Amino acid sequence: MNLLLKQIQHNKLLWLLAFVPVVFAVEKLQPEAHTLLFALSVLAIVPLAAMLSHATESVAAKTGDAVGGLLNATLGNLTELVIALTALRAGQFVLVKASVAGAIVTNTLFMLGVSLFLGGLKYHEQEFNRISARMQAGLLFLATVALLIPSAVAEADSVAGAAFTQKLSLGLSVLLIVAYALSMLFSLRTHRELFASAAHGEAGESLFPMGLALATLAGVTVLVAMVSHIFVESVQQAAETLGLSPAFVGFIVVAIVGAAAEMASAFAAARKNRLDMSVGIALGSASQIALFVAPALVLLSYVIAPSPMNLQFWPSAVVMMFIATMTAALVTNSGRSAWFVGVMLLMVYAIFAMTLYMLPPRVA
Amino acid sequence: MNLLLKQIQHNKLLWLLAFVPVVFAVEKLQPEAHTLLFALSVLAIVPLAAMLSHATESVAAKTGDAVGGLLNATLGNLTELVIALTALRAGQFVLVKASVAGAIVTNTLFMLGVSLFLGGLKYHEQEFNRISARMQAGLLFLATVALLIPSAVAEADSVAGAAFTQKLSLGLSVLLIVAYALSMLFSLRTHRELFASAAHGEAGESLFPMGLALATLAGVTVLVAMVSHIFVESVQQAAETLGLSPAFVGFIVVAIVGAAAEMASAFAAARKNRLDMSVGIALGSASQIALFVAPALVLLSYVIAPSPMNLQFWPSAVVMMFIATMTAALVTNSGRSAWFVGVMLLMVYAIFAMTLYMLPPRVA
Amino acid sequence: MNLLLKQIQHNKLLWLLAFVPVVFAVEKLQPEAHTLLFALSVLAIVPLAAMLSHATESVAAKTGDAVGGLLNATLGNLTELVIALTALRAGQFVLVKASVAGAIVTNTLFMLGVSLFLGGLKYHEQEFNRISARMQAGLLFLATVALLIPSAVAEADSVAGAAFTQKLSLGLSVLLIVAYALSMLFSLRTHRELFASAAHGEAGESLFPMGLALATLAGVTVLVAMVSHIFVESVQQAAETLGLSPAFVGFIVVAIVGAAAEMASAFAAARKNRLDMSVGIALGSASQIALFVAPALVLLSYVIAPSPMNLQFWPSAVVMMFIATMTAALVTNSGRSAWFVGVMLLMVYAIFAMTLYMLPPRVA
Question: What is the pTM of this model?
Fold first, then answer.
């Protein structure tokens, strides 16, 4: 408990934990205050995500590299997964897909962009491990191809019906999970030396002991699930009140909230001239969402959703994911960075955010 | 004759030659056994393609680099060309286009992917000549742009009619053949040193003497033409019986069958850590199909087909060719490989194959 | 005046200045001779563009790097800007957009392609500064994303109406101009050393003294505006007479005419083995059109055009801009060139030019 408090003192994000009880209280007392609940649940998810991420790393550090890496990788996007699962259960497929596409775009452009920009403000030029970055960009490219094919084919060949799209989505999900497993084997076992610097995580921070870490994992996951439930229930009406389209909320708001903890790590690493780690977190997180979270959601939708979900995204989401992936490939190709590289990534992100913000709600 | 037998003993693929008489016999006795004829003709084409490729190299080795290179390059995809010509004559344009697009995608993703995977299983990391690989990927990119423009414009500007597409296809075909001729001049004459390692071919194998080689070329071409005739005639009905779409058959089955001999060479080279050669065969073959075979088929269609063929592919084929080209460009950019790079290429190929397999037949 | 005459003797393009009075005379005497006026105005714009470019450099050389760079960059595409403004005022939005898209495609593919080809004819292999070229290609990529998003979204989500497209275009224009300003800060102030070799311009040529340079700037701008007026008025009818679509005229003719002076510099630099400069002029000019001229035209359209202009290009223009940008990114990635690299760029350009030439006029 002492360590937990120390952690809270150390990490200012965790003061936001105060919002967790507040959101539950407001939900009891004023269940109709959707916009307030939306804002409070956003504020409450951020510190929970940070704790989840810290606890995961503590467990990972104890269990040895192979199991630890697996845990770290599968639990790293737990917040996004829990939010998406809650939305999946409610049958809100547009929100689920928006949050998947948004996480890919936000991690690739915003998280990486701010990292390179902040790093570039401090250092004239920075270098990072090209090989590892290229592998991550390659994985992301692979996943993006899998996500865009159902939409491209359904768009292009209008005869292909819903049954085809559903069957294809199922098959692709299995393929992607196999690719994900093989990528783990590659990066954690056969060629771990290529990914060395990016995998180390926040060394130097005080880690939780095993018992506390596991208890935190369990407890916080339950809390995240409960807050996510409030979030998903309030988001639609709050979006309407605020004049935001579900696409904008899923793409931008949910994506930034869900990745808040990882962003804090990535930005801090960039300021310490450890760009390998920033690039690893940003692209690794994006490719994990694409290779593991998205297909897992499709498979789980057969069990927990009112009807099975497919992998067909709406066209502008496909265009954005594809451009984000290409941008990542172009940027990471040289292995060097300066502040303007960050600006370029952020500009592409701003173009997307502006488009989604202005898009008439019905479309999204 | 002795050498021919020795060659058969050396290369186990050639035992399949036994299927050549079988397919003719079955065609005489049971002309309606389409599925059987389809399977037998596939089995018979593979060893014939291997012989054709060996004879071509023997001739090329004798005639000096310039003529030899020209021969090697123009005859290298002879099997694909003969199959496509047979389909062209029958007016089966969907099959022709599917086999062209399929050869590009299969060579780029499957042949290269298996090569890198097999090589990577044996060697921890492999390197290859980036400059030559980039040039090949650039040629492939150029050809893909030419193949996608008619479809993109016809898709986008619906006013552009069939006459426009036909005229444009003719013009593009001439452009592509000029580009092909210039690329030969570049790689065989002015900058041959850049392509040195990839061009050597299966050095070390016993080559045919000139007379035998020419006789083999002539005789085997006739045999391939005859078996291809049976193949093209049976494929449509066999596909229906087996529940395969013509697109899947053209894209996957024909492409793999037609390239079987080259694949054997590419895989063997990768296992010997001669990735330059594997990359050269895979991408060189793909760009040759795109730059020479496809436009030659358009030009020939004016002479031998019931009506002229254009270069307008159906949209998902365009998307697949474009993604295959981009994947090749990304992968070859670094000049290094490990087993997972092969897996990524194969995964993209599996995504395409799965999509085509599931696509309702009418669409393709 | 002496210097001006010397300049005319030095630069053979300037003999074409004789066409300036001719075009005014013909316009007075035969205002209906559209095809003749079109041809004459093309011939008259070329030398004026060369003078404008030389005067701009002279001013830039005197005012110190920061202001000079700003001037050089903002006035560098003055000809294109004046032509586009004249068309904008006349409400000819198709011509304006075609000239913007055409300038991007022509500078990226034609100007760069001819430079690399001519340089390659003289030198077996040439190298250029990868870092600077990549930055330019990155800027161009950013701008292309901004230009393709409105069209992509409007294409994809048909609900998005004209009001959305207009609002989005306005927002994107502001974003692009901010990006342009930041890119200037980056290349002229914080990281000028990366761009050093490309920025120097035609060192060695005799520059105008300040007074003459400013007078030339003012006077020639007025002349360009007047000739552009004749050009824009005659181009539509001349195109009809010559059977050319407005898209072809805007994309190819206007783009080549407007960039004639820069092309002369880029080609000469390539022949002197100064590829850094050729690449800098070609890609820098393209990204400037995309990042500054295009958004400035949108903003100005609110003031001077009959109705506001948006950034929605027709689909084949978007495809072409995107492919041109990708081609530039692929080609500049290696930092090496040989004659065939130039041929590949020119082939892609020829594919586009042929497509536009054949496209039925109504579509464009």
Answer: 0.87
